[in-house]
Write a structure and sequence with these properties.
The chain is α/β, with parallel strands linked by helices and about 270 residues long. It is built from eleven helices and ten strands. InterPro entries: Restrct_endonuc-II-like (IPR011335).
């Protein structure tokens, strides 16, 4: 194939350029982009940061660029590719590829994002089962002295693998920062007729529950009806259900904390 023929195929969208000198018949995902980078380098690229987090399944930042360790050959960061100098990073093979170890990856990402997203990253890393709390603690020690490590270290006691979404982690950080009593996570409420409803946050003694509702919460009328019936069932058991949306968490956290505290106080007074 001549260069001109290749250019024609690219212009028609029948072939896409992945990296310099490497093309594909369709735009590849992360594994394909890494494999293409291997071809470009002539050796295996080592994933790190958000790309490694994607391979492990705990990337809460929706990373689009490919992040790799400096391979020791001429490779520069460019659009869609970031090359990192990370001396001493432990490696692990995941899905057939080399990447920085899961706990190291989680802590490294947590060091460089905001506190809410850092806690979300640590929670997600535990949730996947790729690492345990002691692994995260060891990774913090290994990265001591690096920028952002103190903030990541301070969040470690609050990391909880029971969190099932990044926004649940952000909600929990509001509770931590504003000293709302610690809730149970993913708590199951049982009805007399055998139904079981699970809520994001619960204070069983006060019979108060809180649920994060994202924009995708209701994907249709049937789902909305089912959720309304679920909430009604929980309320029939004497529980107060507090809905939480993103604006509560990111724009008015103090109001959210006050609302939760007020509900907890009223429930305790009533009992």
């Amino acid at each position: 194939m001549t260069r001109q023929q290749l250019d024609v195929l690219v212009s028609k969208g029948e072939v896409v350029r992945v990296w310099f000198g490497v093309y594909a018949t369709a735009r590849p995902g992360v594994p394909g982009r890494l494999a293409a980078l291997d071809l470009h380098l002539g050796q295996e690229a080592v994933a790190c940061m958000g790309t490694a987090a994607q391979l492990y399944g705990f990337d809460v930042e929706n990373t689009t660029a490919i992040h790799v360790l400096d391979p020791g050959v001429r490779l520069r960061s460019t659009v869609g590719l970031t090359v990192h100098q990370r001396l001493g990073a432990p490696l692990r093979r995941v899905h057939g590829r080399l990447a920085t170890a899961p706990a190291w990856t989680a802590v490294e990402v947590a060091r460089q994002v905001s506190r809410p997203r850092a806690l979300a990253t640590l929670d997600a890393a535990l949730h996947t089962g790729w690492c345990m709390p002691e692994d995260l603690a060891a990774a913090v020690t290994e990265q001591r002295g690096r920028r952002g490590i103190i903030a990541a270290r301070d969040l470690l006691p609050h990391a909880d693998g029971r969190a099932e979404s990044a926004m649940e982690s952000e909600v929990r950080l509001v509770m931590i920062d504003y000293e709302v009593p610690k809730p149970e996570l993913q708590y199951e409420i049982h009805s007399a007729d055998g139904q079981v409803w699970r809520v994001d946050f619960a204070w069983p003694e006060a019979r108060v529950a809180a649920e994060y509702e994202g924009v995708e919460w209701h994907s249709g009328p049937a789902e909305m009806k089912r959720d309304r019936m679920r909430v009604a069932g929980i309320q029939d058991l004497g529980w107060t259900v507090v809905p939480i949306v993103a604006e509560d968490v990111r724009r008015h956290p103090w109001r959210l904390a006050e609302r939760l505290t007020n509900h907890l106080s009223r429930s305790r007074l009533a009992s």
